[in-house]
User: Fold these one by one.
Assistant:
Number 1:
Amino acid sequence: MFERSKITQACEQFALRLQRTIGDSRVIDDPDILEQYATDKSHCEGVFPHLAVRARNEQEIAAVLRLASEYGVPVVPRGAGTGKSGGAIPFYGGVVLDTTRLKSIVEIDKENLLAVVQPGVITGEFQAQMESEGLFYPPDPNSLESCTLGGNVAHNAGGPRAFKYGVTREYVLGVRAALMGGELISPGKRTVKGVAGYDVTALMVGSEGTLGVFTEITLKLVRTPTELSTLLIPMPSEEAAGMAIAKIVAGGLVPRVLEFMDGVVVDVLRQKGIAGVSKSTHALILAEIDGNSEMHVEREVLQLAELCENSGAEEIFVAKHGGDREKLWAARRVMSDALAETAKHKVSEDIVVPRSEAPRLLAGLKKISKHYGVSVPSYGHAGDGNYHVNVLWDDDGFEPSAVVRDIFELTLSLRGTITGEHGVGLSKKPYLPLEQSANLIGVQQAIKRALDPSGLLNPGKIFTE
Ligand SMILES: Cc1cc2nc3c(=O)[nH]c(=O)nc-3n(C[C@H](O)[C@H](O)[C@H](O)COP(=O)(O)OP(=O)(O)OC[C@H]3O[C@@H](n4cnc5c(N)ncnc54)[C@H](O)[C@@H]3O)c2cc1C
């Protein structure tokens, strides 16, 4: 849709005007820095941007969008670049608009349980700050030490605690966003209720940097639970683990974390000497129960343990305090890197199926693995039916797209979705039409055109042209 040579030409005038507007030093054209903006944590290949701006305030963001619109330059919003679907990588070049310098917590309103933040605040730092105030911001993507709240909202990030507390969307009360052209809008509210007009906030959440650039976000908070217990449960088989998880959910227990790791993952963890992974372990469950009553949490821990024992668990590790809890999390924390070390190549998808379909999903993945002769281990947020399915292979000539397509087709046949957390971005856009009808994609493209008629904001993402 955009020719690189035309963007190069447009960028010359654009850069001059931008330098005059926000200052020479604010417009980056150093190739070493631009190179960093051509990748994220996905396997997608992007192109170098022509320019980058590390915005310091809302005025600079609006100026970039206004001038880029005038000169026809694509703009790629970017947070910390931890995205796994290529959302923050330029597809056509243009200017990367880095919002990580906007990192203030603008307001903490304890009485109304909300905070107003800038988009570059690191998620983990925000959580720590809230906890020091006796408040709790539950969404916990595993990248929380490095990712930004702006990136989380743009991808509607989830995490292990989503089973009980929900994903980022549930905590976004409002945003302030700059549109392509530089106009500012502030959809949302500071109240619990509020139904005036269309829910534009909801539209902005998960829009992957294609509808607007967040300059401020209003987040809902909850009170910090006082009691917390972590359980690591080695299981004798994947089926036994599946049965235990089904019983936990059906039994009405709502642990804040309910994670599953399959047999292949367990083998890798065993080789690494991770605690709790004995010879007879062929799947793992990691669970956390929290609440405000010690008696209540202890009762639920016992119930959960009993359900797992009835499904075949012989040993259950329980911890209540920081260091001990971290030891039980070790398996989950090292797993992704440990898997990557077992093969030359790895792609990882984040599919979701209705919880009741998990056994059929796991059986189907085994068939796919056998059919293609590649390892397809999976782990994930079993409580949500959200599985990280990996394809691992050594042969440099092997092309994994057929395996990935089969995984998505299996997922959709079980009435699931191709992405639960990471977004469509570049990596999944060829597969979106497998899940969504042409009419539904058309509605989304019409919304995109209404907000960004020239298609300059994060072009090449989500939809194939
Ligand atoms: C080790 C690891 C673990 C991960 N675990 C999880 C997990 O558990 N759950 C999960 O959901 N994800 C996870 N991720 C993926 C990733 O961390 C999340 O998608 C995260 O929300 C991206 O934040 P970011 O600041 O890095 O954004 P980026 O990668 O920089 O950008 C992501 C998207 O947001 C847009 N964007 C960024 N800032 C803005 C802004 N200010 N305004 C508008 N759009 C913007 C970009 O255009 C892009 O489309 C993981 C990634 C890694 C590497």
Number 2:
Amino acid sequence: MACLDPLRLASRVESEVYEPDGRARKYWRIRASRHYGGNVAGDVVGCNLRCAFCWAWRYAFNARPGFYLTPREAAARIARAGPYRLARLTGGEPTIGWPHTRALADMLVGRGYEFVLETNGLLIGSDRIDPGEIPRGMFVRISVKAPSKESFEKVTGACGWAWDLQVRALEKLLEAGFEPGRDFRAAVVLGVAPEREYSLFFEKLAGIDARLVETMEPEYIVLYRHVVELMSRRGFKPYLALTPDGGVVRRGSR
Ligand code: SF4
């Protein structure tokens, strides 16, 4: 099967989930969540990857569901959804429709919120988003989907060259003066490749800046029923995953 170009896909998805007049963007849910000690999460529609383990695939792969919110409307919904002063935008891909996300972050940070952007980083790595446009006070969590080009292509459906954009995004944030742990971090999805690939990848990251490894966050595949359904359709078997109640499953142990 031919690999997909995630930059072209981002442009197409943007035309389906973002309205430049009013900077309105499509969401499928706004909810209080327990992550980070309690926060309000905006789940956006549409993504430019097709990860075989995506927990949000019904909305990330399909731009039809959802509802539009302007930045002001999204800020109001976030304020109503919970008492937390930490907000995050998450999957789908929140850098698609970037003017919306930037305006929302400006609004919320201006009101004293902490704001976390959970992104695959491709548009930052590709020069479509300059780190200088990232509002100060926004914490950027770049979720690296695989430890190598080869495994990236296998699990995301995107061409292997796009893996470099994930790494490039981390480099660009460093070059722009963002500090690992304080302003951003790499979150690395575990279990998509053998351990030796991860060792090589962590060495590569340490060669860029040791703080990328020190502050790295592991991300686990969780075997929710709908995730298992997707993985089985894609013929993907993780090397390591968690059950929804936190049990560890290794390849071959089931
Ligand atoms: S980048 Fe995230 S939202 Fe997009 S397909 Fe992968 S796991 Fe799903």
